[in-house]
């Protein structure tokens, strides 16, 4: 797992490193060298380095001097004469680079800049780093446009200029990098929001041997999962199974208006590996569901005149829920006093439960949008997984009119709910372009799926996948966030496979469902390969360790 630190915590680590004897000047030297090393890997002849006025620019000047020493033709581009730099660190390294013979251009015209960039093999973007806020001001906005027009390889220092490394927002021009060399630790904005498009591949430069320890001590806001992390939640590899040992799922979903959501959630649960799936719907839509679901029994329950669940069916739904390995409630269900009652009754049942879509809206209704003020509602022995998208998250976490607009805001909102509960029984899967699986002790970031998943019904498919994964059982509730992250990755991978079959813009939720089985197999294989790869690396390292 890779830790992700908020910007203020990265600064804290930087301070701790200085207290442990690694000065800021030394950190900047190492940062610049890490960038130079990355640039040298592509064996360039001509490199342009755009340096801003803060310490991000300082890293750029260090890289320039290093590349110059290595015999590369380097040209620094700066908005002001290096003598006028206000940051004492940046001033020091810029003077050193100039004294070493690095050539530079101050405030070139757009045409001059374009000519310089087009004659460069690599462009290093050291304009704006973690000190950036707002939108890039002139001349950086124009410079960034020119960088994005060049065919040269673009290496960003710490963060692509124009991107907030904290929020992932980029309200103005922002650099599209091929590679981002980021210092100390991953930051949330690099792996969420616009960061996912802007960063290219991310290379981490820890800068000091103490960094790993200090980053963990700084309490990462989240951890990005690697394939081998999922070993603990892989399904058992055995032939000795029947349909019940793979777990049964009860899906409580649908309404006259949205029967499709229920159909897709049930199909997804079956494709994601549940041995037995039963769909419970309001009786007015039972027939349409049956015509779509040949293998899945559909049970009709009393319905209201609007075609939603009626409270009359509540006791029967709960009694069916008690027999399932896991229950999913919510997709397409609608929100009314009756569906609120059904949701609330299911919370009291003793089986693992996934609440999605309208079940979350029902929770919002029950708690006047402050689920965190009603922890007794969600405190239970069996696992509870809530799968809100950001608007739904706002409705349960106290900000219905101002939903979380970034990964970190979503993690914070999810934590309000999870910490109010306080136990390991709950996980909030805060869905977005980057999804966080937030438990009471840890927030995990599964590898995000492709943009093709932004299609109607995709949430129903994830909910069904989640329920099927939960139905396999869990050795300990502490593994709940990991299990949820695993389900998210299976869903994401199914999206990738569906995009290969149908084209990135042609994917419909049913295509994702069709790929869930293959995606599960591929996930298991990639986890096994990652684990055996790590074991081999361990073996290779072993003689050195024992030979000390
Ligand atoms: N955190 C760390 O441990 C380390 C950080 N280092 C570098 O230091 C950087 C942070 O340095 P700073 O805090 O000096 O900040 P930056 O260099 O990121 O930016 C500060 C400068 O940008 C200007 N600026 C801010 N918003 C702007 C906008 N919208 N338009 C135009 N100009 C704008 C400010 O006026 C200031 O001059 C990191 O990104 C990294 O590259 C490294 O040198 C070494 C280690
Ligand atoms: K930058």
TrEMBL record:
Residues 10-215 form the YjeF N-terminal domain. Residues 226-523 form the YjeF C-terminal domain. K(+) binds at residues 56, 125, 161. It catalyses: (6R)-NADPHX = (6S)-NADPHX; (6S)-NADHX + ADP = AMP + phosphate + NADH + H(+); (6R)-NADHX = (6S)-NADHX; (6S)-NADPHX + ADP = AMP + phosphate + NADPH + H(+). Binds 1 potassium ion per subunit. (6S)-NADPHX binds at residues 55-59, 129-135, 158, 261, 332, 389, 460. The keyword Aminoacyl-tRNA synthetase does not apply. Keywords: ATP-binding, Isomerase, Lyase, Metal-binding, Multifunctional enzyme, NAD, NADP, Nucleotide-binding, Potassium. Its cofactor is K(+); Mg(2+). GO terms for molecular function: ADP-dependent NAD(P)H-hydrate dehydratase activity; ATP binding; metal ion binding; NAD(P)HX epimerase activity. GO terms for biological process: metabolite repair; nicotinamide nucleotide metabolic process. AMP binds at residues 431-435, 459. Its EC number is 4.2.1.136, 5.1.99.6. CDD domains: YXKO-related. The keyword Cell wall biogenesis/degradation does not apply. Homotetramer. Belongs to the NnrD/CARKD family. NCBIfam families: yjeF_cterm (TIGR00196), yjeF_nterm (TIGR00197). Catalyzes the dehydration of the S-form of NAD(P)HX at the expense of ADP, which is converted to AMP. Together with NAD(P)HX epimerase, which catalyzes the epimerization of the S- and R-forms, the enzyme allows the repair of both epimers of NAD(P)HX, a damaged form of NAD(P)H that is a result of enzymatic or heat-dependent hydration. Bifunctional enzyme that catalyzes the epimerization of the S- and R-forms of NAD(P)HX and the dehydration of the S-form of NAD(P)HX at the expense of ADP, which is converted to AMP. This allows the repair of both epimers of NAD(P)HX, a damaged form of NAD(P)H that is a result of enzymatic or heat-dependent hydration. PANTHER family: ATP-DEPENDENT (S)-NAD(P)H-HYDRATE DEHYDRATASE, ATP-DEPENDENT (S)-NAD(P)H-HYDRATE DEHYDRATASE FAMILY MEMBER. This is Bifunctional NAD(P)H-hydrate repair enzyme. It comes from Muricaecibacterium torontonense.
